[in-house]
What does this fold into?
Amino acid sequence: MSQEINFDNILPEELDKLMDYIVELFGNQFSRDELYDGLASKDLIPTITKCINEVVGEVSSATAGEGKNG
It folds into this structure.
């Protein structure tokens, strides 16, 4: 998902899509609107980036041992 979006020039529709991803990531514990209301605008992109990086890091860690004969 992060490869599809230009983080230097995010369109409103793309931001909504990213916020929906964060909501889903946290098991729908809150809505998109609650997420928007709960985050300062300056924290939106850093929060989204951090969440995506955490997911990518977990996937990388989980697959790091695959394909090795041990």
Observations:
- The two ends are 33 Å apart (CA to CA).
